[in-house]
Input
Amino acid sequence: MRHFRSLLKKDIRLLVSGKFFLMSLGCLILYTLYVNFGYLRFVNAQLYNVYLYDPVGTQAAVSELMQRVSSAEELDMALREDTNGVGIDAGTGTVRILMYEGTEHADRHRADYALSLLRPAEHGAAETIGSNTPEQKARKEITCELLFFEITAVGFLGMASVLFKEKSMGIIRVHAILPLQKNLFVLSKLVIFLLSDLLFAVLLSSLNAGLPDTIALLPAILLQTTFLSLIMALAGLICSLLLKDFRQFTLAYLVLAVFVATPVFLSANTAVKLDWIRFHPFYHLYMGLKHAYFQTSTPGPSYCLGCAAAIASLFAAVQVLFLREMRKEI
Amino acid sequence: MKGLHYQLKSVLHDKFCLMSFLLPLVVAAALNTVGMMDFSSLGELHFGILEHDLPGQTITWLEQYGPVTAYPTQKDLEDAIKEPSTNLIGVKADGKAIRTILSGDELDLFRQTADTLPALYEQRELSRQAEICVLERPDVMAKFHEMFLVVTLIVAMFMGCTFNAMNMISEKEDGVALINEILPMTARQYALQKLAIGFVLGCLSAIFTAAICFRLPPVKAALLLALIVLSSFVSALIGLLIGRISDTLMVGVIYIKLVLLVFMAVPILSFLVGIRNPLVQSICYFVPSQATFEGIMDLANGGTATAIRDGVILAGHCAGWFLLYLLLSKRKRMHASLT
Output
């Protein structure tokens, strides 16, 4: 235990000197600013505006959602500015609908919707069965994405930078001749990265997803963060043990960031569903985290067992590689 | 000249630099050949219904507005509605009418559509009494496609900073920087050689990318070339600064990523949000890539006036960054002579 404590202390010092914690704090501040002052403003899609040109007043009772314009030119101008809008030209006696082309289905809906505003009817509100408001949804979604990105990309990079530094300082060589259990070396790193990721998850969620929501969701989020953090830290260790130097590692990181993360984000957050995505392991990890934020489903035993098995096999692989590395060093 | 030859040799041995050089080319080729993914389904309405709940003609009526998916049980339907990544509108029979179900976290467009859908259904017989005139508009996606191409080009240009920064940092790490100090080479020669490397490779990468992406008449191609040359020079200068201030590869990589992120994010955001405020617009121009982006977009859309103005702004950037570099090296020299 004493050995483990001193290893922990050494790793913490290394991370502090490598400015890892400072970088995490910087990321936290940057993300929080982005979510609160940037992202939420972009997410908005209004229903199509409907503009009515009716100089002789043929349309008596129109909905208050309709915007009246005074001339045909003004109608053209309004549509050119707002290409999703629909114009109704009642100037010639008959009703004519003007709009810029969209998709086939959407066009039909826009036309029928615009016409329905000429005959205002009582309409109720749709039944609501979910518990999130649009803002809550946007906040949870972006927080989930940022947390996933931070752990997969930045945690991965951080682990590698520490290991390469230790390699260059000769710590692995020193460790090979120390009378310590060999897995303590890996364990102490995992513990630090896990704790820092958990702390990051707590802070990021409570600052961005709303404190009252976060308290209820925290156990589920922390469970998913634990899985993800351990898997990524071990993957980072494997890559940095296999690759020669940090430069090669950054290439692996680039591949991971571009080719691994993009399809996952695309499938998980938009209606674009790729058929092969269920074979992508990161998709399941991401969905696990997303389910935790939205409480849409609890992780089943097969998912938990799968994660545990992945962690165990990655750990075994790290052990083998680490012993090989030590033998090489002696 | 001989020094430059050695510098180029050492950069070309570096896989990271080679990859940085090829990445924009690969992305541009992919964007050009594969084309854009079909995102048109994103703005569409999607409906979810229960099996054996709605009559056939109602389903046909719904299908004219968007795809309809039938779910076997109430729970499946509710789960699909609650699924946060989609904006599915649930539709159920309500006597002769219909009623709609939402999860409540949808954007306004989907909420209002769901609210008004039952009224639309009631009026379905009356609907088609108007003449519908659909005006053609340029493909909305084409605009985004163009944006992606220009951003790829910007990445290619500003990759220039990667070459000399990585080269300088790895020299520091390997100790070559110390050897350089005793070689008969002045600090100015060293800086010029490194600048030339970032500039030449950044330029080449951008020119190849531009050749893949754009087909322009000669005058505009010349303007594009001018923009590329100026931007590559700015990025080479920035690379020189990064190489100077970062001591380890890790720190260097972080700086480069930050610079690339800012250089990509500012033009993309200002393009998507459509900034009108002149003050914010001029603040955006403090990031060199903004001028490049606006200029190339203008050229791609057939104009030249903005491109010329942006060329002048970029020339200003070149001068500004160069002065900053000179100032910093003068300071360092003074600092060194004091100690």
Observations:
- The beta strands of chain B are 47-50, 68-71, 89-94, 97-102, 131-135.
